[in-house]
Amino acid sequence: MADFVDSTVKDIDTRLRELKEEVSKLEAARAALAGVRRGPGRPPGSSAAPTPRRRAARRPGRPRGRRSGNTRANQALDLVRSRPGITIPQIAEALKIEPNYLYRVMPKLVEDGQVTRDGQGWHAAS
Of 68, 122, 75, 65, whose CA–CA distance to 95 is shortest? Predict the structure, then answer.
């Protein structure tokens, strides 16, 4: 029985050494990663005053924010006209964009009466 206890204690000690080595490796990896990441604001010790930012002049008559023109919607509409029955993933692949954007664009084209949906495929409205 004493041999069993001694053997078990030895196994536990070996495993504890392995775990301590693993912990030290993980702590070193964490420290390396935390050192690379920069927090918000200026780095410590930086005493330079921030330079004031100038606001870009806005051209008269041009709305703020995003461009107008429904460029992606027009591109999607052109694809639907040229390839009836095209699906959203196919449109996204052709336009080299993510499909989730098209799931917002295509219903707007339906509302505008420019396309119709047939199952998964899209067709130009007649």
Answer: 75
